[in-house]
């Protein structure tokens, strides 16, 4: 059975310096959960992007606003990174190219499966991260010559 470890905490959204605090908190939690380095880097990128969006583009960024960061580690192969904010005028929107905003969501979407949902009093935005594929290629057990024919 795969173990699931759940962590969450809240941050003041009206101070962008809390994004760095959220990232430090996530690094400590994920390092303690023995998450592999590649997955750790992807998760920290997503924490930064989603927390920044909450602080800049939602009611969480207003005076007294807050956002919550939720992390779940599933074994050592998967991570769930979620930010729960206090909502805003617009739904999260992925943008490419020269757009002023939305590129952070695009980055998160390239690292894992990005989703969002409205909640009572806000919204949840999350990324489910798979562990990156192994860097080594499994060798083909059948030997081939330079022209591709079997030897």
From TrEMBL:
It comes from the Bacteria. InterPro entries: Anti-sigma-factor_SerPK, HATPase_C_sf, HATPase_dom. Residues 131-151 are annotated as: Disordered. Keywords: ATP-binding, Kinase, Nucleotide-binding, Serine/threonine-protein kinase, Transferase. Residues 15-111 form the Histidine kinase/HSP90-like ATPase domain. Gene3D superfamilies: Histidine kinase-like ATPase, C-terminal domain. One of its GO terms (molecular function) is protein serine/threonine kinase activity. CDD domains: HATPase_RsbW-like (cd16936). Transmembrane segments: none annotated. The keyword tRNA processing does not apply. PANTHER family: ANTI-SIGMA-F FACTOR RSBW (PTHR35526:SF3), ANTI-SIGMA-F FACTOR RSBW-RELATED (PTHR35526). This is ATP-binding protein. It comes from Actinomadura montaniterrae.
């Amino acid at each position: 059975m795969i173990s699931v470890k759940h962590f969450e905490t809240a941050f003041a959204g009206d101070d962008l310096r809390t994004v760095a605090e959220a990232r430090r908190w996530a690094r400590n939690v994920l390092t303690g959960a023995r998450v592999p380095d590649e997955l750790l880097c992807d998760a920290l990128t997503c924490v930064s992007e989603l927390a920044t969006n909450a602080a800049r583009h939602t009611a969480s960024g207003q005076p007294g606003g807050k956002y919550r960061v939720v992390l779940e580690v599933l074994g050592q192969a998967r991570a769930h990174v979620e930010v729960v904010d206090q909502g805003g005028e617009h739904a999260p929107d992925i943008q490419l190219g020269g757009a002023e905003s939305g590129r952070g969501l695009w980055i998160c979407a390239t690292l894992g499966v990005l989703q969002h949902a409205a909640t009572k009093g806000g919204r949840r935005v999350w990324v489910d991260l798979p562990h990156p594929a192994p860097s080594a290629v499994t060798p083909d057990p059948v030997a081939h010559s330079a022209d591709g024919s079997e030897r």
